[in-house]
Amino acid sequence: DPSHSTCLTDACVRVASKILEALDVETDPCQDFYQYSCGGWIKRNPLPNGRSKWSTFNSIWDQNQAIMKHLLENATFNSSSEAERKTQRYYLSCLKEQRIEDLGSQPLMELIDKIGGWNITGSWNQTSFMEVLKMVSGTYRATPFFTVYVGADSKSSNSNVIQVDQSGLFLPSRDYYLNKTANERVLAAYLDYMVELGTLLGGAPEPTRLQMQQVLDFETQLANITVPQAERRDDEKIYHKMSIAELQALAPAIDWLDYLSYALAPLELADTEPVVVYGDTYLQQVSDLINGTDRSILNNYLIWNLVQKTASSLDQRFETAQERLLETLYGTRK
């Protein structure tokens, strides 16, 4: 309304109040603008336990989580949406703590057996690399070696395109693997975590430690060929559009048409389908690394990706192991 220069609706008043609360008006903005604009927020919002950072977005997320919790725990919830009913069943299954404790590691062990076994815990299918890769990343959405997704083409935003990028490291960045002196404590905690989960799933302690060290060494090799984020800021330089057939020639260790058809089913793909690759040199090197690595190490690495993706759904022993690692990584307790 041009006749009014100030918005006095309820929504505007609430937003203005939030902004005023965030200010520290006792500070001269010309001397310390950050303190002036954020001092009130910092004073009213001490860092909660278990958090390494806290912002308005974290606060809004928590509020939304509380709303969803209320909806999902509503006993009279009777939605006509099958997706919403599935969501509630999934949520309530997580609250059956005694059932989860009784099952222990059994659900994951059965899943590992279903997709061909794990060298750390028993016999495994030595000829099933592609099948295990498809299951681990296509079905269960872990990201060994690389990540695949469909999104807007950055050079033609009115269309979606398959995109492939580097991936495969568990620790937050490649520096944790490559700067071993500075990160000795984190690497030791990570190896202990790997060994603990391997033994919880049936592996013998010493052989498990030996094989998990091989997996960690393999991840270090991946870190060596992973391009640092500082070198990936220019989209023009890392954007490479090619066909699946050209991707196959670039990284022949993977059957790309078979993999992408499985991961993106029910899409019907041909080898002429365009793909945007954001790490052509990386994929070429990872293909060479796969071809030059013992199949038992590849199997251990693939199943480890599945284990770390799903372990948080298991009993308290797995949750406690994860909390110890996160405390070493981020200094936070749950």
UniProtKB/TrEMBL annotation:
Enzyme class: hydrolase
Keyword Transmembrane helix belongs to the record: yes
A Pfam family recorded for this sequence: Peptidase_M13_N
Enzyme Commission number(s) from the entry: 3.4.24.71
Record keywords: Cytoplasmic vesicle, Disulfide bond, Glycoprotein, Golgi apparatus, Membrane, Transmembrane, Transmembrane helix
InterPro entries recorded: MetalloPept_cat_dom_sf, Peptidase_M13, Peptidase_M13_dom_2, Peptidase_M13_N
Official protein name in the record: endothelin-converting enzyme 1
Lineage, top ranks: Eukaryota, Metazoa, Chordata, Craniata, Vertebrata
